[in-house]
C-alpha cells in the first residue's frame, strides 16, 4: 500500500478552535484587542501561528487593516501602513532591514496610538536574537507563555473531533498515538484525518492494529 501523505487543508484558525484551559486570560486579551502590544511565546506546535492568524482574521472581520506575516517565510520589506494590525510570527527570523522596519512600526504605534502588534516567538523577549533597541521595544508588550495542552486535554480533543465525524474511537487508541507519534495537536489531528481516510478506504473499523499499520507507513 502506498504511504499516506499527511497533508490536509486546514480550517481557518479561530479563537473558538484554540484548545486548552491554561490560556483563557490570553484568549480574552486577544479577543478584546484593546492592547496595542502583545507578545506570545512557546515551542513549535504550541499554537502560536493559530493565535496570530485568528487575531488578524478577527481584526480584518471588524473592518480594520490587518496582516499576518511569518518572518521565517516572508521578509518584512517595509513598515506596515498606519493603523495596521500586524500579527508577526517568528520575529527572530527577521533580517536587519526587517528589524529596522519593525522598530519603526513599534515607535509609530506608540506615538500615534493607531494600529497594534501581536508577536509570536519561541523564546521570551530577553532571549530574542534581535538588535538591542528592538528587544527593548518588546518591553511595551504584554507577554504570555502559551501553556501546552495536557495529555488528557489532547485525548479529549481527539475524542471530540472523532465524535463530530460520528466516529467512535477508544481513548486508548489516542493514548497509544500520543506515545508513538508527534505530540503537537496539529500533527495529532492530521493523523486522525489520515486514520479516518485509511479506515474508509480499507473498509475496516478504526482499531489499534489499523493505527499501528498507518504509523508504520509514515515513520
From TrEMBL:
* Domain Hda lid: start-end pairs: 151-215
> GO molecular-function annotation terms?
DNA replication origin binding
As recorded in UniProt, coiled-coil segments are: none
**Which PANTHER family does the record cross-reference, listed alphabetically?**
CHROMOSOMAL REPLICATION INITIATOR PROTEIN DNAA, DNAA REGULATORY INACTIVATOR HDA
Q: Which organism is it from?
A: Eikenella corrodens CC92I
Please give an example of a GO cellular component term from this record.
Answer: plasma membrane
From which domain of life does this come?
Bacteria
Please report the name of this protein according to its UniProt entry.
DnaA regulatory inactivator Hda
GO biological process terms, semicolon-separated: DNA replication initiation; negative regulation of DNA-templated DNA replication initiation
Q: What is the lineage of its organism?
A: Bacteria, Pseudomonadati, Pseudomonadota, Betaproteobacteria, Neisseriales
Q: Which InterPro entries match?
A: Hda (IPR017788), Hda_lid (IPR055199), P-loop_NTPase (IPR027417)
Amino acid at each position: 500500500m502506498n504511504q499516506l501523505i499527511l497533508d490536509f487543508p486546514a480550517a481557518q484558525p479561530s479563537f473558538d478552535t484554540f484548545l486548552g484551559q491554561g490560556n483563557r486570560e490570553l484568549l480574552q486579551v486577544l479577543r478584546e484587542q484593546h492592547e496595542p502590544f502583545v507578545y506570545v511565546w512557546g515551542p513549535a506546535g504550541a499554537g502560536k501561528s493559530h493565535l496570530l492568524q485568528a487575531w488578524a482574521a478577527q481584526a480584518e472581520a471588524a473592518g480594520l487593516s490587518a496582516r499576518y506575516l511569518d518572518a521565517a517565510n516572508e521578509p518584512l520589506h517595509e513598515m506596515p501602513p498606519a493603523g495596521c494590525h500586524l500579527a508577526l510570527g517568528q520575529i527572530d527570523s527577521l533580517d536587519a532591514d526587517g528589524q529596522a522596519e519593525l522598530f519603526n512600526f513599534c515607535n509609530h504605534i506608540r506615538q500615534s496610538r493607531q494600529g497594534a502588534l501581536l508577536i509570536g516567538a519561541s523564546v521570551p523577549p530577553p532571549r530574542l536574537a534581535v538588535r538591542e533597541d528592538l528587544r527593548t521595544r518588546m518591553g511595551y508588550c504584554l507577554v504570555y507563555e502559551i501553556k501546552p495542552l495536557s495529555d488528557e486535554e489532547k485525548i479529549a480533543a481527539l475524542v471530540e473531533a472523532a465524535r463530530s465525524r460520528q466516529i467512535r474511537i477508544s481513548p486508548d487508541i489516542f493514548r497509544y498515538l500520543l506515545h508513538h507519534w508527534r505530540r503537537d495537536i496539529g500533527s495529532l489531528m492530521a493523523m486522525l484525518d489520515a486514520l479516518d481516510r485509511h479506515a474508509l478506504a480499507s473498509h475496516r473499523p478504526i482499531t489499534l492494529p489499523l493505527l499501528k499499520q498507518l504509523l508504520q507507513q509514515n515513520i
